Amino acid sequence: VRVAKDLCSAINPARAGLDPSTVCADELIAYQTNLHNGAQHLAAHLDWPLHEGFGRVIVTVAIRGSATILLISGSTVGEGDDQVQPAFRFHLREGEAYVLSDNARNKTLHAVLADDVGGTRESLNLRFGIHTDKEAEEQITRHWPADTM
Questions:
Q1: If phi over 0 gives left and psi between -120 and 50 gives alpha, with beta otherwise, what is residue 36?
Q2: What is the CA angle 9-15-18, rounded to 5?
């Protein structure tokens, strides 16, 4: 419990615009280590809340190695030939963290491109809160129909 409290304090949910009642030791449901084993990238994906991608809020900490994080919108903007799918990227250095919550968690694909291809990259996911079946349906399934997954 002490480690969970220390992690939540370091995240400082209020400063990050997160609900402190969700990003707190009592709501921390899993520590998930990611050993990337020299993989060059983690393909674009959505963490499916009722399967392996549980957690209303996901905080990922770069434990070893750095990478570029890609966020790809689940919807398009524009008309006809001018239609585009918005995407954003940012660099994540070793020791830094990023948060997926709300629309960034529920409507946006994310991918990871390693800086050191073949190197040792490790990260830690902290998963806070559980989606109910109804929330998963309302927040995820309506944006990502089963035939697109």
A1: alpha
A2: 85
pLDDT over 80 (residue 149): no
Report the b/e string of 120-136 with b at 16+ CB within 10 A: ebebbbbbbbebeeeeb
Q: Where are the alpha helices (DSSP H) in 69-144?
A: 102-106, 133-136
Q: Give the helix/strand (H/E) hosting 97.
A: strand 97-100
DSSP class of residue 140? I
Tokens of 81: 């030939």
pLDDT (tens digit per residue) in 6-63: 888 888 887 778 888 888 899 998 888 888 787 788 888 877 765 556 788 899 999 9
DSSP state, 141? I
pLDDT of 147 reads 54
What does the block give as tokens for 15? 């400063």
The predicted structure's pLDDT at residue 95:
92
d(CA 124, CA 122): 7
